[in-house]
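Hi L.,

You mentioned the student needs an example of a multi-chain input paired with its predicted structure. This one should do, with 840 residues in total across all chains.
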Amino acid sequence: MASRGFSAENHQPVPFYRNVKILAVLLQIAFVLIVALVFWTLYSNMVAGLRRANIPLGFGFLNLTAGFAISETSIPYGPQNTYARAFIVGVINTLRIAVLGIILATMLGVLVGIGRLSSNWLLRTIAGTYVAIFRNTPLLVQLLFWYVAVILKLPRVRDAVGIEGVILASNRGLVVAWPRATETYGAWVHWLVAAVVAGVAVFVARRLQLARRDRPGAALPYALLAALLLMLIGGVVVAMTTGNSPLRIDQPTLGGFSFRGGATLTPEFFALLLGLVVYTAAFIAEIVRGSIQAVSKGQREAAQALGLSPLQTLRLVIFPQALRIMIPPMTNQYLNLTKNSSLGIAVGFADLFSVSYTILNQSGATVQVILLVMVSYLSVSLLTSFLMNIYNSRMRLVER
Amino acid sequence: MKLKQTPLVAGMLVLTLMLSACAGNAAPTTTETSAAGETAAAPSTEVIAGGLGGASTAASGAATGASPASSPAGGAAQTSAAATTSAAATTAASASPAGAGGAAQTSPAAAASGSAAAIAPADAGEFLRTIRDRGTLICGVNPGLAGFSSVEASGGYVGFDVDFCRAVAAAVFGDPSKVEFRPLEAAARFPALQTREIDVLIRNTTWTLTRDTANGGDFGPVNFYDGQGMMVRQEENISRLEDMGGAQICVQSGTTTELNLADVFRALNVEFTPVVFDTNDATLAAYAEGRCDGYTTDRSGLAAQRLGLPNPDEHVILDVTMSKEPLAPMVLQGDPQWRDIVSWVVYGLITAEEQEITQANVDTFQNSEDPTIRRMLGIEGELGAGLGLDNDFMVDVLKAVGNYGEIYNRHLGPETPLDIPRGQNALYTDGGLLYAPPFR
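Structure written out for the whole complex:
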């Protein structure tokens, strides 16, 4: 009698449709199914449509002759090559701009970021103005500015400015004297290999020595010095024995329509690189500034109390700690820079997107090419974040 | 413990309700589409693409048996398209043209099954109905090519191609002003046509096999016979392409020009470096700044663009023709009636010049005894009705823009700064290539 209400026989199990745990799982399954169905419908429509239009959804077109020329190629390429090769040329060009851009943007960004915190009024103001201008205007506008208003306004190729035979700037690009291999280069290669081996050996030995003494110190400069010295000795020896230097300086000369010889930095590449670096560096500067300011004030005071100079404080105490904070947002900027390089089409740079756009237009394989482009950018981005994540986990504070 | 969990449970229930509400909308759609297979699945994406392309109004007019099923499906699908990433949207958009082109090939089957597509012209006449329902013709033109299509001070479009757009509008509506112009860059024109953002593309487009097939287009008669040329600086002393070894040449991407350039120089075994831009303006600007030694495009375009350079006299157009460039109006494959309308408007303009019927004197021909003229102007016979138009459609066309020769002289003739000789674009009777089939 008294046990009425909460008796065992009244305590029935909750039916599954009222069980919160099961409902939650069911809902998620339903959601995934709906999403999958939507995508499946889109996909099957696309496939059906393409089939009806007699457009094969294959990648066979990649083996067809491209038929168009590309202005900048790092690997041998001509109109008689395939679409696949043209695409690879585009990928390499994008990687070139991305890698170089990331390195330069980081360097400039860190300098400007530190400059923004400087006690020097002029430096602080210049850095602040730089960030304000380049962070708050669209990248496309900046790119067109660099290309049309700055680079194309350089003197014509016949009136190029610079030092004759060494470095010359015109609106056809920057031409510099460049070392090129000669016939005796093969003999010198052995010395190069030896130099690398020696460099690594010195590096490892120095690291071991430092570890044994348990003292801070640098190993890299010694290794580089050793390798460089060996390379130089090798070069001299080869030149002495064969009477022919393994490298020769290729000087640019005006011939025909443009410069011949030397290495050329094309206006399109330069404009895109400049635009991306200047733009991204403004964001990196802000990240650097924020990360430095996020380091506890006590650290700086403690460093000063130990008698470290302001530069030492920054280099040895503040910056290493700020680095931990800045890595994740910095990764974002690196990814942005890589993706923004697709704006190169506006200044005529033959990057991945620009080349693919041409392929798409000439082959008619719209879907496949867009897929390829997306996958390519995705791979580059994922690789970048993967590397940055490794770096991040290595730099992370080890908590005990 | 139990009390603490209540908000969580309540929140979950709300979420459940919201989700089931969404699912309630979406579920019937998806089951329906999956049950009915490909035929029923077609409308939903095509509506998405229609939404993207701006031609969604067609659904109501075209839908027959599938109408009740397709409209909710379309609605739900459109929402989901908005929610998905832009990547998916792009895929959908690029998928649709193919669907559009494809529906044409299977049109008897599609018509029989009663499935109506919003984007693909399912049957002959669908384009004309859509355009009439909308009240304007949407015509894809060049954003700026003097003589062919450019924006004048008052903001309106003017030019040779533009007049052909007006002619088609006059044929459809009897009113040349019922036309809306879409400026399109070279690389954007085919997607615009494929997604039905435009009804007809009259934008100095070269007729090629690939464009007739892989790009899903159909071409009307050639309205301008062109050829690719090369412009260089006078001071360079270049007279032939063979003199251009090592030259850098500015060219626009996504054009036949780009391919011809590579072909011709390859055949001549002359080295060159292309400098490629995606817009005509950027390409020309780079040449003007001295970035390139040469600038190549169709000869008509060169004549027009040379005048736009700071010092036109410093530039010469080489006396070489690098390719055949028959420029023709382009429509989407799948609606033979619409293609016929565009074709016969062009033929009509050519025939009118042949018969010396002009904008000014067209009314005087109402009493003409010549049976050819009487048929063309709709005084006798039912030629217009065969196209789904009024029988006197050519009267409206000629009153609006005049005959082919008048259009030519107005924009490209000796009175204009361009002054392009008629050459191949003269009537066949004058040694040109313009030859229209008879109006009969």
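You could point out the following to them. Chain A is about 65% helix and 5% strand. Residues 83-116 of chain A form the longest helix (34 residues).

Best wishes,
N.
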